[in-house]
Amino acid sequence: MERTTSKINLKALTIGFMLLILPLIFIFFFYFFPLTSVLKRVFTDFSSLDVLAGKSVTKVVWFTLWQAFLSTVITVILGLPAAWIFSRFTFRGKSFFKSLFTVPFILPSVVTAAAFNALIGPRGLLNSLLPPASSGRPQIELMNTIWIILIAHVFYNISVVIRIVGNAWAAIDRKMEDVAMTLGASRFTVWKEIVLPMLTPSILSAALVTFLFDFTSYGVVLLLGGIRFRTIEVEISYQALTVFNLPLAGILSIIQMIFTVVITLMESAISRKITQTQSQKINMDNFKAATTDFDRWAVRIVLIFNTLFLTTPLLALFLRSILSTTPPQGSAPAGFHLTLEYYQLLFVNARNSFFYVPPIKAIWNSISTGIIAALIVITLSLLITIAENRYRWTRTVTSLFMFPLGTSAVTLGLGYLLFFSSNIKNPALVPIAHSLIGLPFGIRSIRPLLEGIPNSLRQAATILGATPLTVFRKIDIPLIRRGILNAGIFAFTISLGEFGATSFLSLPERPTIPIAIFRFLGQPGGANYGQAMAMSTILMVFCVVGVLAFERDPDQNLG
Amino acid sequence: MLQLLNIAYSYDQKMLLENLNFNLTRQEVVCLLGESGSGKSTLLRIVAGLEKPLQGEVLWNGRNLANVPPNERNFGLMFQDYSLFPHLNVYDNIAFGLKMKKVAKSEIDTAVTQALEQIGMKAFAFRKVTELSGGEQQRVALARALAPKPHLLMLDEPLGALDHSLRVELLQELKEVLGKNGTPAIYVTHDHNEALTIGDRIAILHNGQILQNDSPEKIYNQPNSVWIARFMGMNNILSGKAVSETEVKLELASEEKTIVFEPKYPLTPGQTVHVLFRNGTIGELCEGDVCLPARVDASFFKGNSYDIRLKVNPTSMFTLQHPNQLTVGEIKTLCYQKTDLVLLFL
């Protein structure tokens, strides 16, 4: 008996290891080794840092913390009413609004920055429509202020609160509130005594996720905050790429990692608690049409506010990409006129341009990078999740693959810069870095579907004569197909918008879309501005299409 | 006490309840019996004040409750899944209603301890409700609903989630605290056996209307429509035609049979009527007032007897109990007394 057991264990060990060997080599070579070289650099060059460096680190960390805290508080406060209406009411266009409100979250940070620039920037839609102030300056001067950073953070994180808190709220049986009312509790007491305590874990979880995103914010702060405001992430890239102070960049990376790991651990502890206690089955009776005047108005106001807040910047972005303030020759020099000029310019390899290629090439670069990253993510996620599913011992190892979640993209870029030093110009590193960032999401897309297949199905197939490989082909694959597709879409969309790591890796002649937008926005002149808007609009469309394809899965769309 | 006048309610533009009238006048348990989707739970929610009726009035001791919110009605409500508050322990769940009434802490303590003793769960006071079994949860939910001494308790399929033996046990316990022994109650169920056991009165709800509202005995012995008879599990029904003011002609397999009734109102010759055959025995010879020949179609073993399915005419099957298994195809005689026959018009 014992012999058989050890035989099975040996087989499980061998096959499990074979499945994991490729993912392990990948993650060690492209993730752990680069990060170790950051640590190494810090330790070897630590003595070269002076007191001034210490002061600037404290300043940056302090700013990063308080802006993240403030952004989080505002996001939670503004997100709760929307979470409430989505989890308690039915109304016309509910799933449309739910998807619409998710759009900002999936947009790359450069697009968000470009969108706010398009709405309230000095060249933005509102300032172009409003007469300039008496000083000759634009009416709305929010660029390079803390306000625009906070607004942008709330903009793309509000859907985190709507989703996480909304799902938890929808899972709270409405009957619980009904019973509390019949026991004498007023509506407010029901909220305070019953709903709020049950929602607290999910509110905390949403707040921590939001905080993490705000804490590691890069593109938005870089593009909207100007030189005055630098988060740790921005400072790392500034120290590494502009002043070449690699040890200081390294220290900042380590600080960043410590915070990220602590926050991630706290969040996952809470999430675990939520999954344990939250009812998995959502009672459809929880959703009802608003019947009282108060409820009807609340639903309307929340929808109107969120729709305005979340769509105007995006609309402004699109409009700014097709409206020019430079009058065509021979016409009156006032106001906007419609033009496709900015889109056409993308095809031109202008002389003296800071690109070596027509900007449209950036789109092709992004797409090809995205496809390669998606293929890598799908392959690795499949190997990892299958190993986990079939050989339980591998679960002790597979948590390694979730580590990139807790690492900022800029830190990864810095690691590559140090580890691959002379090979940094290898174009393959861009999709590889992107796939590492997408890998945890790929695993999370496939894992639940694979785990959800009852073993009895595989046993039934085996009894009917299927070999293990046939079982995998005929039972597992068809049932996890949606997860594989989602993993691919996820990885592709992340890759399209990835800016942090790419800013370290991309070659001048091989820009990706976000890099091109960043460069355009950094240049003077209406044409560059317009091209940034055009490029951002294209990226926005790609991401929205990707997410629409993803959202179609009914299982992903609870409530 | 409770009076519902002309209640109407629609959901998704479909009428769920129409001109419904209902009374609860004594210290009694009224069972609302109906299929799922018949609007029973909605009716409870309207009484509780959780839904507003499209029209009609809910009166309590003559007072219209239209503008009284649910938290001021003092009506208890209990659901099939108990809806215990998961973040509160057993004690705090039971104390919740008393706290809402701002009862003094010492009084709450006495009341909760008493309630826990009554349900035999004193040792469970500080347990998490999520750690309780189904039966224990049900007891806690009942204690929680009764603690603030509601004027009326509404129970929505309270035993639906439990297994059979536990249901029988808890049904007895419920009977002890509801109705004439304590709190008047409206008990919603789709299970006619449960309704017959616990109800002092049964109101049968179908298509948004109350079809019959009588004592359990009356409902069982004198169902007033074919639908009710079938819903109560009585399926031995034949359709026939009135041939005179008192006679009904039935089509059997090989013959026609005319039966004489004593209807309350004279029958109209030619009108379609239905005859419910209750009780009855299977024999060889005719040993009753009315006998029907029938062919054995199948026998199902039921422990202490067999359910015998017999074909009475090409479209009708009867099922009767018999101590022995019978051979399929055998012709038997079904014997009934006059009092076993009920004339149904709907």
Any overview of this molecule?
Chain A has 559 residues and is mostly helical. Chain A folds into 2 domains: 1-48 and 360-510, MetI-like fold, CATH 1.10.3720; 51-344, MetI-like (MetI-like fold, Orthogonal Bundle), CATH 1.10.3720. Chain A has helices at 2-45, 51-88, 94-106, 109-120, 125-129, 146-171, 174-182, 187-215, 219-224, 232-242, 246-277, 293-322, 341-345, 360-390, 395-398, 409-419, 429-451, 455-463, 468-497, 502-505, 513-521, 526-551; strands at residues 89-90, 288-289, 323-324, 337-338. Chain A is globular and about 75 Å long. Chain B has 346 residues and is α+β, with helices and mostly antiparallel strands. The two termini of chain B are 32 Å apart. The mean pLDDT of chain B is 89. Classes of the chains: A mainly alpha (559), B alpha+beta (346).
Q: What keywords describe this structure?
A:
heterodimer; A: 559 residues; mainly alpha; MetI-like fold; 4 strands; globular; B: 346 residues; alpha+beta; 2 domains; 6-stranded mixed beta sheet; 5-stranded antiparallel beta sheet; 20 strands; 23% helix; elongated
Q: Which SSEs are present, and which pair or pack?
A:
The complex is a heterodimer of chains A (559) and B (346).
Chain A: H1 2-45, H2 51-88, E1 89-90, H3 94-106, H4 109-120, H5 125-129, H6 146-171, H7 174-182, H8 187-215, H9 219-224, H10 232-242, H11 246-277, E2 288-289, H12 293-322, E3 323-324, E4 337-338, H13 341-345, H14 360-390, H15 395-398, H16 409-419, H17 429-451, H18 455-463, H19 468-497, H20 502-505, H21 513-521, H22 526-551
Parallel strand pairs in A: 1-2
Antiparallel strand pairs in A: 3-4
Chain B: E1 2-11, E2 14-24, E3 29-33, H1 40-48, E4 55-60, E5 63-64, E6 75-78, H2 90-100, H3 105-118, H4 134-146, E7 152-156, H5 164-177, E8 185-189, H6 192-198, E9 201-206, E10 209-214, H7 216-221, H8 226-231, E11 237-242, E12 247-251, E13 256-260, E14 272-277, E15 281-283, E16 290-301, E17 306-313, E18 316-322, E19 331-336, E20 341-344
Parallel strand pairs in B: 3-8, 3-9, 6-7, 7-8
Antiparallel strand pairs in B: 1-2, 1-4, 4-5, 9-10, 11-12, 11-14, 12-13, 14-20, 15-19, 16-17, 16-19, 17-18
